[in-house]
């Protein structure tokens, strides 16, 4: 059905730093092992940015990957929304403004979204709503994180979990397909200290088990909410692209809610948890593998600091 109001993802890009840090590498500096990390999380290795490579650099490289697919993509961009918890600067200027400057995109609206690992889902909805309202017509939505800047490298409970990277999508109007059908965003502020970068620590602190239990529920409830609201059953969904935090969270969710484990696309083994960047990085990889086909129903699901959670339903 033709709908002038549809917003779709017209292109995808990603960038991960070259430097690979394996579980065995980490076992040289903290009391851990490849066996523990892999069996508890599914992670084998992560990418870590150079000292001089900031969050905005990762974001810019992801966008350049997107532009490399079609130079025409750069034309007419009038919105840049960056989801990040690891902005180049404390407070301001926003990473989105720096990205705009580095890419030579003049006069576009540029803003950062802070919703932890759910940031990309929030950013996607903010950009979609702004396009629908007429504030933007063509927007870059970027998830970019240099988590290595905020990891306590002496804390084995957290340092093994995270990695650096960036992914992005281009959002535009279409009359040819449905694109983004629905979106849901939530927050439970009562859990705000379960996962935080506090003023005192300036590094990530986490109550792992509490966040784990929340995550299993958040993913399941988000999927069910989007299915119910759109009169769909789970067997109609080709892919669920979850925030990549822990393979065991996904397995537990599949078991508890009766979702097929193979519906979830996972790449946590190679990149670990890249927070707001994990969903667009996964998406770029899926496109590269030709897994995304027109007409498929796809769900993105995010969860994380806040505690926030949410999802996006798309017909590709
Ligand atoms: O991106 C946003 C959200 N973040 C998440 O979703 C993370 C959610 N939480 C998790 O993924 C899991 O809770 C963890 C992977 C963080 C931890 O797994 P767990 O099965 O919940 O382990 P645990 O916290 O219950 O710890 C079990 C044991 C502890 O030892 P004791 O106290 O039982 O002797 C930890 O000290 O494992 C120990 N441990 C480790 N051992 C070796 C914790 N980290 C490590 C480590 N290597 N890296």
Which sequence of strands runs across the widest sheet? 1-7-6-4-5
- Based on secondary structure, the structural category is alpha/beta
N-C termini distance: 14 Å
Number of DSSP strands? 13
- Give the fraction of residues assigned to helices: 25-40%
Describe the structure concisely for a colleague:
This protein has 316 residues and is α/β, with parallel strands linked by helices. Helices cover 33% and strands 26% of the residues. The chain folds into two domains: 6-174, 3-Layer(aba) Sandwich (Peroxisomal Thiolase, Chain A, domain 1); 179-315, Peroxisomal Thiolase, Chain A, domain 1 (3-Layer(aba) Sandwich), CATH 3.40.47.
What's the helix and strand layout?
Layout: E1 6-15, E2 20-22, H1 23-26, H2 34-41, E3 45-47, H3 55-69, E4 79-83, H4 95-103, E5 109-113, H5 119-133, E6 138-145, H6 156-159, E7 165-174, E8 179-187, E9 195-197, E10 204-206, H7 208-229, E11 237-242, H8 247-257, H9 268-271, H10 278-288, E12 297-304, E13 308-315
Parallel strand pairs: 4-5, 4-6, 11-12
Antiparallel strand pairs: 1-7, 2-3, 6-7, 8-13, 9-10, 12-13
The structure holds oxa(dethia)-CoA.
């Amino acid at each position: 059905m033709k709908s002038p109001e549809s917003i779709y993802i017209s292109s995808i890009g990603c960038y991960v730093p070259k430097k690979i840090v394996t579980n065995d590498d980490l076992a040289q500096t903290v009391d851990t092992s490849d066996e523990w990390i892999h069996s508890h999380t599914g992670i084998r290795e992560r990418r870590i940015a150079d000292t001089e490579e900031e969050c905005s650099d990762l974001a810019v490289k992801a966008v350049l990957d997107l532009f490399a697919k079609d130079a025409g993509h750069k034309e007419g961009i009038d919105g840049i929304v960056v989801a990040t918890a690891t902005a180049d600067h404390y407070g301001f200027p926003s990473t989105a403004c720096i990205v705009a400057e580095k890419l030579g995109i003049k006069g576009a609206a540029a803003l950062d979204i802070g919703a932890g690992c759910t940031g990309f889902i929030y950013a996607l909805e903010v950009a979609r709503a702004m396009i629908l309202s007429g504030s933007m017509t063509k927007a870059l939505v970027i998830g970019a994180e240099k988590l290595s800047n905020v990891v306590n490298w002496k804390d084995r409970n957290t340092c093994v979990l995270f990695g650096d990277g960036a992914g992005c999508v281009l959002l535009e109007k279409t009359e040819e397909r449905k694109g983004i059908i629905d979106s849901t965003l939530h927050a439970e502020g009562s859990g705000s200290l379960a996962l935080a970068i506090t003023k005192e620590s300036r590094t990530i602190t986490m109550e792992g088990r509490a966040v784990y239990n929340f995550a299993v529920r958040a993913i399941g409830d988000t999927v069910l909410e989007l299915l119910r609201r759109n009169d769909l059953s789970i067997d109609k969904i080709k892919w669920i692209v979850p925030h990549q935090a822990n393979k065991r969270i996904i397995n537990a969710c599949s078991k508890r809610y009766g979702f097929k484990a193979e519906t979830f696309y996972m790449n946590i083994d190679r990149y670990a948890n890249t927070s707001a960047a994990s969903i667009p990085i996964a998406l770029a990889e899926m496109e590269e593998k030709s897994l995304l086909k027109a007409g498929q129903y796809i769900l993105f699901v995010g969860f994380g600091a806040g505690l926030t959670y949410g999802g996006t339903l798309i017909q590709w």
